[in-house]
Every structure is written in C-alpha cells, then in structure tokens.
Amino acid sequence: MADLSQIVKAYDVRGVVPDQWDESLAELFGAAFAQVTGASAIVVGHDMRPSSPGLSRAFARGAAARGVDVTEIGLCSTDQLYFASGQLGLPGAMFTASHNPAQYNGIKMCRAGAAPVGQDTGLAEIRTLVEGWAEGGAPEAAATPGKVTGRDVLADYATHLRSLVDLGAIRRLKVVVDAGNGMGGHTVPTVLDGLPVDLVPMYFELDGTFPNHEANPLDPKNLVDLQDKVRETGADIGLAFDGDADRCFVVDERGEPVSPSAITALVAARELAKHPGGTIIHNLITSWSVPEVVAENGGKAVRTRVGHSFIKQEMARTGAIFGGEHSAHYYFRDFWNADTGMLAALHVLAALGGQDGTLSDLVRQYDRYAASGEINSTVADQADRTAAVRAAYENLPDVELDELDGLTVTTPDWWFNLRASNTEPLLRLNVEARDAATVERLRDEVLAIVRA
User: Fold this and answer.
1) Each residue of 51-83: pLDDT tens digit?
2) Which of 77, 106, 306, 435 is the most buried (most CB within 10 A)?
C-alpha cells in the first residue's frame, strides 16, 4: 500500500505518480470524499498534467459508486473549480500539483461553497478511510450509482470575475502574460476577451511537462522570460501564473517584480473603497506596509499564520472582505473566501488603467520597506536552531517576540520571522527593515546562527 503519510499534506494530497499514488488510490479518495462530505453531488476538475484526466475520472468513479452524482468540469484552473463549488453549492475536488514538477499530481478538496478541507476539517478522516480500504477492505457500493455528467463553466467563471471589477473605462494596456504552459493558458483568453487590453501571450499551450520553465513564479529564474518580454515589447505590465493558475505574480513596466505584499496593499485599498471599515487578513510575513495601508483606508487588519487553511478560517471567522499572502495567494469574500490570482490581476489592471502613470509609480505608495524575500536553510534540528536564534535576540532592547507561527522578532526598525517547514527539514527566514543595509546585516546574522 502507498504510504499516505508521504502524500497527504496539511490541506491537500500531493505526490509522484505512479510511484506514490495512482488511479486505484484516487478511486478510494473519491469514495472517502463522498462519505466524509455526506454530499449527494460533487464537482470535479483537473489541470493539464498527463496524469490528471485519468486520476480525475477515477475519483469520479469512486464517488459515483457511493451513489453521489458527479459534475465533471474538465480542464480548469483551481480558482475555476472553487467558482464551480461556490456557484453550484457543491463540494469539489481539483486534480493538480500546482507549481510542482511534471511527475507530481495531487488533489485540492473543498466543501460546498469552496470551504476548505484540511487536517481538522475532513482530510484526516478521508485519509483514515482510504488507509483502511487500501489494506484490504472496500468501500460499500450504493444500490444506485450516481450519475457522471459534464459541464463547461469557463464562461460563467469569467463573467463572475468581471462583474466584481469595473474595467470598462480603463485606458488601453499592453499586458504580457506568462502562463508557464499551465492553466492560465486556458482561462486568461476568456477572462480578458473584449477588454481594452493588448494581450501578449507566452507559453499558453497546455503542457504538463512544462517544456519552457517550471510553472512556479515564486522562483525568480522562472520570471526571466516574462521580464525580458515586457522590456522587449514596451508593455505596461507582466503577469505570471503558476501551474494551476490560482496564484498571480506581477512585473512592472521595467521588468521588475512587484512584491506580493504591495499587491495585497493595493487590492486591500480598492476593496476597502467598496466596503468601508472592512477587515483585511494578512499573514505574518507580509510587509508592514499592508496593515499601514489598511489603517490609512479605514479598515481593520488581522494578522494570521502562513497558509491557505488559516487564511480561509480567519476570513470566515471575521467576515473579512479580502486576504493576502506573501506567496501571491489572494482571497476574496466575493469569491467564497477562496483564493483567485485572476481576480487580483483584474484589480491591478483596473488600478493601473484608471490613471496615467506607470505601474512602478503606482505601487511605490504600497512598497515602503526593504525585504529579504524567503530564504530556506536545511537543518538537522529545527527546534534547536530556532531556540539558538531566540536566545541571541530575546534580551535586546525594544525587542518583541511572538510565536504565532515560528519565531517573530520585532523592533521599531526591523522584524524577522523564522519558521519551520511542515514537510521538509527546513527553516524559512524572512527579514524586513527600513533600509536595505539593515536587511542584509540581519539576514547574515540570523543565517549564521541557523547554519552554524
């Protein structure tokens, strides 16, 4: 039997196909998902990876065998699956491994209305059922199997997104989009169709072997082609989507990356203009500029742990209108509290096209501090190295420490966060300060302790 501890993560399933899991296991996951959600119907979609259609069909078979009707929406982005879950009021399953290499695949699952399925909200129960069946039992078949039907929701998804952002009056923009051979190549043409946008497409051919570069814009090397094309064409903006197109990264007219924290602040200001006094969620490694901009625009900022499930839980608990993570996940109350990079991109286009200046000028008001970006260190003992860092800083003057997620050390002029990976022997460091020299000094000090 496959070792499910290796593929069932904090809020999804992800591993190498067929070495770690395959269609027979996907069928069991479908049956377990049907049982745990208790739904009479579900919706299923998949990305462009070679293994995705087969895994998706197997999952649908497993659910249908338990008497559950299945709506298959076929090729889609993850946020398109969330749209279907929200619009149809059905639990959903998306077959994708997001930005991971081609040999990987996985499942992102949600309850009706795109509500998250994580370790404490059904995933642990699903794993237990699958493990039991894989060891020799079998799911009990329903007397009447469910029906499996197809449905295309792409046009409805695009219409919904465009109903949330007014792009009718913007000036014409030249926009380069790097889809990375991922699902952005499927969604972007429909979403942007008819808008005052001159689209320059890059790698829109759906190809889950990723022949041009990995579909992971968080790694700077995967932005190089987009940066070059923006400069070459004199574009106003560049957009890069990850493999399942739920995250969007932005490049300005100079080809320089725009911090996801600056995008979070920009979108927060726009959402607060629509919903005065609203709550904005941000994780603890986003820039100081985010809560500052939220306060300046009359909103309430709430700081959370890093991670999809934590953001969604806080969105639901607080009734927040928007949430942003430094990994370029953006969550909207108007999108069932789910993350959609496409909607964030439309907000940026609306803000840019609604004034005459450049994107770099526009975001300067939202990008106020120097930052290190996330730096990973492989360590033998995460707790020991974190304790050593704490000991080095806890007695300094004007220092505040908290352990909401890892260790955060804050002074009036700088902060850093050091947190452990849940899946790898890594410590992740983020540093921010009022100037670049302080960032470099702190970065080097902390890394010297971590890597000692």
Assistant:
1) 999 999 999 999 999 999 999 999 999 999 999
2) 77
Active site residue 24: no
Structural domain contains residue 362: no
Note whether 10 and 103 are same-domain residues.
yes
- Is residue 102 within 8 Å of 49, Cβ to Cβ? yes
Domain containing 282 equals 260-351
Angle at 267 between CA 321 and CA 86, to 5 degrees: 45
Does 145 share its domain with 13? yes
DSSP-assigned beta bridge partners for residue 281: 302, 323
Tell me, yes or no, whether 360 lies in a domain. Answer: no
Report the run of H or E that residue 351 belongs to, with start and end. Answer: helix 341-353
- 3-class DSSP assignment, residue 407: strand
State the pTM of this model.
Answer: 0.95
The whole-angstrom separation of Cα 360 and Cα 107 is: 37
How far apart are the C-alpha atoms of 23 and 21, rounded to whole Å? 7
**Residue 173 covered by a domain:** yes
- Tell me how far apart the alpha carbons of residues 317 and 183 are, in angstroms, rounded to a whole number: 31
Whole-number Cα distances in Å, 74 to 26, 80, 159, 342: 16, 11, 18, 19
How far is it, in rounded angstroms, from Cα 267 to Cα 162? 15
Number of H helices, E strands in the chain: 14, 23
Kindly report the number of other CB atoms within 10 A of residue 156's CB atom: 15
Same structural domain, 236 and 268: no
Q: What is the CA radius of gyration of the chain?
A: 22
Condensed to tens digits (0 to 9), the pLDDT of residues 149-163 reads 999 999 999 999 999
In degrees and rounded to multiples of 5, residue 290 shows phi and psi of: -65, -55
Residues near 216 by Cβ (< 8 Å), separated by ≥ 6?
99, 100, 180, 222, 242, 243
* Contact partners, residue 103, CB within 8 Å, separation at least 6: 16, 17, 19
257-258 and 248-251 strand pairing: antiparallel
Coil, helix or strand for 190? Answer: helix
Establish if 130 belongs to a structural domain: yes
Query: Among the three residues 256, 279, 311, which one is the final residue of a domain in this structure?
Result: 256
- Angle separating helix axes 382-393 and 436-450, nearest 10 degrees: 130
Same domain, 379 and 298: no
Can you list the residues of the chain whose pLDDT is less than 50? none
